[in-house]
Structure formats: C-alpha cells, structure tokens
Amino acid sequence: MTFVIDTNCLIFMLGLSEAKKNSSIEKFLLHLEEEKRFADTLVAPKLIWYEFGQVLMKKTRFENLKSHQVNLAYEQFLKFSITTVDFTVGEYHEIFNLCGPLSYYDASYFFLAKKLSAQLVTNDRQLFTIAGDLAYQ
Q1: How far is CA 69 from CA 14, 48, 52, 65, 94, in A?
Q2: What is the pLDDT of residues 85-127, one digit of tens each?
C-alpha cells in the first residue's frame, strides 16, 4: 500500500512535536510496527526535506534542540525510507489550483495523494478534512 506522509506527521512520529495526540497517526504507527510493514511505500514531495530542515532549524533556534538531537532526527527520518517525488511544471500549476484554503506546501501533499490514489497521513486538521476519503483514518 502507498502512503503519502507530510512533514507535520513526520515530526509527530519522530516525537519532535508538542501537538495533541492524533489517533489516526497513532494507528498508522501501529500499522507500521505490528505488521512490520516497512514494505509499504511511503512517499512525499521532495519539499519534505526542506520543510523538515526548517522545522529542525526553528527548534534549534527557539526550543534549544541540540545538534546530536538533529543528527538523530535525520537518522530516524532516513529509516522510514520515504521516496521523494518531484513534479512537472504542469503539475506545479495543478497544485496551485488545488490550494483553496491550503498552503501551497499542503496542497502538494494532497495533490500527490490524489495522483497516486494513496492514503494521506497528516497531523494537520485542515489538510485531513480537505483530503476526505484520501486521509488515513
């Protein structure tokens, strides 16, 4: 099965978020652990690297995240073996048209889930709601 995972979810899964517990993400983590389903395909737009780096930078500057914690976060990120996808110029335009109330970044995750007919795993309430049936429940 293919899952599109967003940065918000990844940060939560790595224990770097103070966000409220989310039952769908906890269920997803159990799915990965219990089933040993790392054979599942985890996919994200290439921008996940930039968003992830930005979150770590902010946590380093404002929340006192230490360099060894940053290194550990990258190591854990790599263990998920997330396949990153880039878009064509035409797809970037389609993403723009999907935005509505979403940020361009969030719309790119939604677009990718639609394109791949994949489940979208997110900790973002607005994205979760807009994704509808594509949102991992």
Answers
A1: 11, 19, 13, 6, 37
A2: 999 999 999 999 999 999 999 999 999 999 999 999 998 999 9
SS3 113: helix
| Helix, strand, coil percent values for the chain (each to nearest 5) | 60, 10, 30
Structural domains in the chain, CATH included, are: 2-134 (3.40.50.1010)
Output the pTM of the full model.
0.87
Cα four-point dihedral sign 22, 112, 127, 137 = negative
- Which run of H or of E encompasses 35? none
For residue 28, what are the contacts with CB-CB under 8 A and spacing of at least 6? 3, 9, 121, 136
Contact (CB, 8 A) for 113 and 4:
yes
